[in-house]
Records
---
Amino acid sequence: MYDFILSFTKPDTLAAYLVAAAVFATFVTVFLPYLKGDKLETRLKAVSNQRERLRKQSRAALETKSLRREDKSMMGSVSSKLNLAKALEDPNVVKLMNQAGLRGPGPISAFYFARMALPFVGLVLTFIYIFFINDHGFQPVMKYGSLAFGMAAGFYAPNIYVKNLAGKRQKSIMLAFPDALDMLLICVEAGMSIELGFNKVSQEIGSASPELAEEFGLTVAELSYLPDRRMAYDNLAARTGHEGVKAVCMALSQAERYGTPLGDALRVMAKENREMRMSAAEKKAAALPAKLTVPMILFFLPVLFLVVLGPAYIKYQAMQSKNDAAPDVTQVAPDSSVHDVA
């Protein structure tokens, strides 16, 4: 050991050690990148494995629950036997039902069955009310017109119900959509693929908007098995029926087609959707005074008049009662003068 330490004092031995260290450092510098491996390739492989796993899950779900289902309920059998889908055909019913969250053959059969049955129900109820309960003094022509109105109300009642349901669902989706875009932007900028981003956002946004989580889950499934990814974005825009979602889906389709960065497009779309939500809130706030005019006239002003004029009316009544109870001085004075003369 002592001889090894003394060797460092010799110039030739020290030079040999320095040359060996330089050769080793050169070897490490040249071959170290090959020893580390390609992180990008590993990352892309992980994304591909995750995508394949999601595709397998979606296909397994489709095998257990086929898309081509048949409605075997009573309403479905009646609708199929009477061919109500053709007799009462509505070209927008499938799109409207999807926007309302009613998917599959069951809700469609129930819709056509209700459109067939409710006119007769409305006719019977109107007939009972007009001819047996209260006719309101209607002439016979008005009575039969009321029957026609009952049938028309029953015929259009399913459309009104589904439209209201779709409107409520759309409001719920749009309240949470800007926040969902922010989370999707974070996922994309973190290196996730768009499928993993949609899947993660659907899990996180479920507590705020179950409807939006359901739509994102369907989009993940469609991205897994549809031949063209742009079809999944178009289906998402059609199911929601909102301009903000359509703009986002168009931006995603263009990014898929031309290879533009998703982060920039999602950032701009998130900002626009937040501004749309703020403008909708400002619009409601601006319309609030006009909506409060009638309730204030009916409920606030009468109470205000009662509070302001009530005490004055009470004092006036008290003064009137005192005046009525006081003796008549003009009648007492002449009687006293007559007694004095006597």
---
Amino acid sequence: MRKTNIKELAKILNFSVATVSKALRDSHEISEQTKKKVLEAAKEFNYTPNPYASSLRRKRSKTIAVILPEVADNFFSLAINGIQSIAEKKGYHVLIYLSHENFVIEQSFVEDCRSGRVDGLLISVTSETQNGAHIQKLLDEKLPVVFFDRELESIAAPKVITNDYECGFNSARLLLERGCQNIRFFSVSSDLAICSKRAEGFLAALAEAGLPNENAICYFSANDTHTHEHIKEVIANRGTVDGIVASVERLAIQTYLACHELGVQIPDELKVVAFSTVETAPILNPSLTTITQPAFEIGKNAADILFTLMEGKDYGYTKKPVIIPSVLVERKSTQNKTGA
């Protein structure tokens, strides 16, 4: 069966070409009933849109960029899936840039986005990023930008995040409720807003319990080898340290490896909580207590907002961040023997 073009499809449906085009792009101007009718006809009469031709007509690239600090963290893999679910629906390609936690690389990628090759940007900044001038340039040039997970509070752009402060507080409180008295917060940055908020919540729980917070926050580099040795040093010389909250997934994995090498028993000698979406958390030995972040939903919502901005609409997204709550899931890494 030969392919049908958009004019022929419009004639079959007795709609205007503009109506069919908008329906295929999932425009808010078209009713759900009309969209359904157009999609069913497109399938029946073998219509396949030509994204390249349509992008030339509208002077759009039909591509969005996503800048990530890493992909080893399961969070970002799930977030990409959420982004892709919206992009595919809109007929867009997704161009993924990996900054490797390097601010200079991030800057170069953002600069690349100014070339016109993308219609919008989704970004989660590096642990080194303090200045957002490079991102502000895009906003000044009217290129839509949405932060997800890792944001810059100084930049007035939409943000999709989770309830980091509450999660930091709840993770510390859980350890204290399980009998820990000397707990540490493992972080990758003192500048990232998500790490700062998690640390603030953690310290607030200590203050509420009347416990000292001296040396409670430990910072680690992006280098896995250095991180591993540093964590081993903290645990080996831990004194009475009996609980750890890992602010990111890789720090939790490195903590497990360090405990294995040092012969430290989790949870009997050291209890561990991690901000993580890792699917293997339930089958780790012992199973890992997690603050499970809604990674797919964060990516999906961020992409949804980006496309809304790209359509020329702004529902006040820059005024207040979209917050999607995380969930504390307790497993054996924080349980006492009676709860194991």
---
Amino acid sequence: MPYKLSELAHLLKATWSGQDVEINGVNALAYAQEGEISFVESPRFLEEAKASKASALIVSPALKEKLVNRNLLVVPNPRVALAKIAWLFYREPRPEPGISPLAFVAEGAEIHESASVLPFVYVGKGARIEAGVILYPGVFVGEEVFIGRESIIYPNAVLYPRTRIGQRVIIHAGAVIGADGFGFAFDGEKHLKIPHFGHVEIEDEVEIGANTAVDRATFGVTLIKKGAKLDNLIQVAHNVEIGQASVLAAQVGLTGSVRIGNYVMIGGQAGINNQVGDQALIAAKAGVAKPVPPKTAVAGAPAIEIGKWRRCVAAYERLPEILKEIRELSRRLAVLEEALNGRKDPQS
């Protein structure tokens, strides 16, 4: 369905300028064609924006005057506007409701009539699947698993017994939710496995990336709170708690019982072995061994305050030059000492 530029402005409570063109899609600046809208995040994209074939551009007020003779949708945050507009044009094929005859559903499982259960899905005893859920081929749903309304579980994901999934959750292919945590006790000869009695709970509107693993709790719950977003290939250990709307990039590793606050951002390949406060920022490849206070940015391994880390990096880059200077100073000092020693009175 196409939208006039004025209609998009009304939906976003934004302003617009230029011609009230019809928009039937969204695209990147380099790929956009007539009838599509694109976005300009920063001044470094201005030249590309001027050359773009897009019929309209989403811009911030600061860039409006730099794009004359273009049809503009003016918003405080172009990226947020893009996210909202994109869903108006995005269409993903949806499987028909019903249970495939090639799926296995155990006795006692409850599946809403509007859910879609595709071939080669396994649904265990006592599982409950609510309205609008989609289970793609190869999904394993263990005993007593609960999956809330309109959640989507992509191919070959595994939900261990007693896992609880909220509403509108997306779990991508190959993710494993609820496996044993890495818990062992060494008796001097061998590592004794500790059984895990807990479970995993994922609240509403969480997204779990492909091949991410979320281990169940030893006792109690491993909890991922509402709106959190986890990228691919993340390890979440037993009894971890991830706060509301926190975002974790690929290959992050969280050790057992770590608490991540609300609205935290963690860069790729960071390792977290302590508590992280609300709205903290953890840079990529950081190694967090000490608690991170709320609203603090850290980087490095071991992680330190990001301003200090930048100064350390700047100094590190100058180490060869500094070493050369030290050697020169040492040489000059030796010459000076030799000269001073030569002036001393032998009788003194």
---
Amino acid sequence: MVLFKILLSCILYTKGGISIRKILSLIILSFLICAFNLDINASTFEKTIIIGGESIGLELNSKVHIIGFYEVETDNKKVSPWENSNILEGDIIISIDNQKVESNADIANLIKNKDKVRLKLLRDGENYIKTDIKVVKNKNGKESIGLYVKDKILGVGTMTYIDPETQTYGALGHSVANGEDQGQLLLSTIKSIRKASPGVPGEKYAVLSTAPIGTITKNTEIGIFGKINNVRRGSHMKVQEAKNVRPGKAQLLTVVHGDSKEFFDIEIIEVRNQKTCATKGIKLKITDTELLSETGGIIQGMSGSPIIQDGYLVGALSHVVISSPQIGYGVFAQWMIEEGCS
């Protein structure tokens, strides 16, 4: 700044200084306008939402994956069609005899009137395997390959927020493994709790409604997103920018009994400096003695529970440290809002 003033003085006292003075005035004015615009653009994130905390059920379409094996009862004996095949639980069925498989019904259609078929499987998300498997008829005359398969995923999680302006929501705080970008959101009522202990995950046991309350349209690493059928009344809350979240006391909003939301004390013990969307930006510890007594810490079904600090929504619970279930991680609420709006 001092150098600039000296330079300006020298120019103003030279021949033709009046013209130069006008040029410099325009340059300085342009600089001030640019600086003002930059200051405005630096703080444009503002969002008010309806806070979540409700227990929800998820029914998500998925790739057809193998969840078990069974012996097929034929007219003569029990048979294991898969015993000489290279098949493991968790494998995803990509095709049968080079025909794409997208649902359980596809399998039934593609093995009709056959004694053997070739499966193309995806294992561990990266290895493709081809293997033959026998087709046998059960005692009812229907073809079977003796595999338990599933093309939908059912689960329990927690609503993080609802956007009343767009009738959209964000929940869960992480992705649903093997899930696709289509599904339904259901009401959920918690019936019982399996407590967590070091090395043993806990879980919420729930009853799910049959009538959907919304749709699932995005399944991402920071949560699930979609449309809600009816926007309910609820407490409005502002969303905190990721850069303003700090270590210290906070609260978790979740359900452990029926459908009643409760606030529980937590401590944010670490905040990561994330400039863009990423997971595990918040590390936290459950400090509430009542919650620890009920659940042992963070359990399955709590994912998506809002993290609230100083009256702002700052994040959503997303992960637990299995060896120390009172410790877990959350995703910044700002990233969920921006993902849900994209």
